[in-house]
Design brief:
heterodimer, A: mainly beta, seven-stranded mixed sheet, four-stranded antiparallel sheet, 11 strands, 49% strand, B: mainly beta, six-stranded mixed sheet
């Protein structure tokens, strides 16, 4: 069984540009989560999908971030326009049930210059 | 507001020693607690998941305990090996929602 995959593994963009991160959850997992870790800080929750619906987006930092999960399969996280403070590692996780173990992808390292 | 603290921030021990990593949380109303390891430049690997009704979980040389009333969890690593070197993170899932609240991690170095 394939694990959670994320693309790209690393992205370097200039301030003001747009970047789209992708996450493919484990097949059959209805729950998908986005987290991020900025330099020197703890990992923070961004949002949670149940199938294609946003269940909780309380962690999204501002309206420059847009997450989608059309069809309830893979998810994208778009940052537009990117700012320097958006640099960090963005993790995606999926779980079968909401109380189940969360399985994490390898992360996407975003660098905004 | 739930806060998770991990002490120490870094730990270096000789190979073969048994060691304990600590995780504390401020609100005992948790659904479960997970321990993860992260290798440099890599993703997060789940090690153990303890449900709120459980007191401990074991996997190989790893044993995690949970004391909800005191807001503490420990990760015990027996007979440490250089391959155990990594950052260990604990995360709690509050009762009230489904996100994980994370500690800052303990960076563990096992010296050969």
């Amino acid at each position: 069984e394939a694990g959670v995959t994320q693309f790209p593994s690393h992205s370097v963009i200039e301030k003001g540009q747009t970047v789209t991160l992708r996450c493919d959850p484990i097949s059959g997992h209805d729950n998908l989560y986005w987290y991020r870790r900025v330099m020197g800080k703890e990992i923070k929750f961004l949002l949670h999908f149940v199938k294609e619906s946003k269940q909780d987006e309380s962690g999204m930092p501002n309206n420059r971030f847009l997450a989608e999960r059309t069809g309830g399969t893979y998810s994208t996280l778009k940052v537009q326009p990117a700012e320097l403070e958006d640099s960090g590692v963005y993790f995606c996780a999926s779980s079968h049930g909401v109380g189940s173990e969360q399985y994490f992808g390898p992360g996407t390292r975003l660098t905004v210059t | 507001k739930q806060e998770v603290t991990q002490i120490p921030a870094a730990l270096s021990v000789p190979e073969g020693e048994n060691l304990v990593l600590n995780c504390s949380f401020t609100d005992s109303a948790i659904y479960n607690l997970q321990w993860f390891r992260q290798d440099p430049g890599k993703g997060l690997t789940s090690l153990l998941l303890i449900q709120s009704s459980q007191r401990e979980q074991t996997s190989g040389r790893l044993n995690a305990s949970l004391d909800k009333s005191s807001g503490r969890s420990t990760l015990y690593i027996a007979a440490s090996q250089p391959g155990d070197s990594a950052t260990y993170l604990c995360a709690v899932k509050p009762d009230s929602n489904y996100q994980l609240i994370w500690g800052a991690g303990t960076k563990l170095i096992i010296k050969p």
